[in-house]
Amino acid sequence: MPSTYALILAGGSGTRFWPLSRNARPKQLLDLFGDATLLEQTIARLDGLVPTENILILTNAQQEEAVREVASMLPAENIFAEPAKRDTAPAVALGIGLVAARDPDATMLVLPADQLIREVDVYQEVMRDAIATAEKSDGLVTIGIKPTWPCPSYGYIERGSRASIPGLNCEHPPAEVKRFREKPSSDLAESFLAKGGFCWNAGMFVWSLPTVIHELSQHAPELSRFISELRTSKNITATVAAQFPKLTPISIDYALMEQASRVLNIEATFDWDDVGSWLSVAKYLKEDEDNNRSNSPLSEIASENNIIFNARKGAHVALLGVNDLIVVQTDDALLIANRHQADAIKKLGEKLPPGLL
Q: What is the pTM of this model?
């Protein structure tokens, strides 16, 4: 698909994975599962779907060096560091402008860099259908995840009737999106699942450039003007440096998706995990008879429900009479936390010396 491009968003701090993650090497740059970093896996999933020279990555200056190391298979000019933190809408607009400068009629995927998806063949089938939907319709396409529990930490998409798109023949038919729902209370999330027709918002989007540029001109004129400057710029680097920091920080959901005249949703049939905490990682670690999960050799007595992640080669961990702990060991730091407070690990950044962030 020579006119298909992918924009991978690879910023973020990954503070829930301290001490393994640091500001310069967040979650997407970690090898949490023993095979490749999440960013490498995101790139590899596009093999045969998007030409390598059409894969772009947006990161930040602090992480740029590490991203370039991991993504060395991409052309150097395809990796961009944002000059300021401006949330996802300006970042996506920057990606749209970069692609539009190369091919104004392209179809474009926007993908997070930090999700775990292992069923690559199924993933590609879904994304091919999303690309076909974007090319044959006037809608912006989202990928949704079928909820497995009433999670209050995700945004939700309310699906409507099956979309009518002339000439579209695919295995994963799109539905019209009724509306986006922000992160709900637990009770409201339970009502979504009971009612049916809701999916988790995975933050994956597919659209044709003419369609998304038209929608931005209607609903986000500041971003539309920025894209126009990029398309005509003789020095894109200078234009980004001068104009990007001036853009209003706002998410792509607020700025565009919730305002667009037509949004379509394809429900994913592949496995998916956003790997949001050490609890998520634990599901993929070796488990013993006492529900202790570890990535390395472990000795224990009377210890249950612990999560051990050892980044020190050759180091051994032994547990005696402890339950429900998260223990993460690196060369320069040791985390011992209650597993029921996994989401609060990010707060430790306020107490740590700068050299450990």
A: 0.94
215: Cβ contacts below 8 Å, ≥ 6 apart: 140, 256, 259, 260, 261
Q: Which amino acid is at 128?
A: R
Sequence-distant (≥ 6) Cβ neighbours of residue 94 within 8 angstroms:
58, 80, 82, 226, 230, 240, 244
* Class for the domain spanning 4-267: alpha beta
Three-state SS sequence of 284-351: CCEECCCCCEECCCEEEECCECCEEEECCCCCCEEEECCECEEEEECCCCEEEEEHHHHHHHHHHHHC
130-160: pLDDT as tens digits: 999 999 999 999 999 999 999 998 999 999 9
Structure tokens at 197: 């027709």
Q: What is the Cα–Cα distance from 163 to 144, expressed in whole angstroms?
A: 15
Which segments of the chain belong to CATH 3.90.550.10?
4-267
| CA pair distance 142, 128, nearest whole angstrom | 13
Q: What are phi and psi of 287, to 5 degrees?
A: -115, 140
**259 contact partners, CB below 8 Å, separation of at least 6:** 215, 218, 219, 220
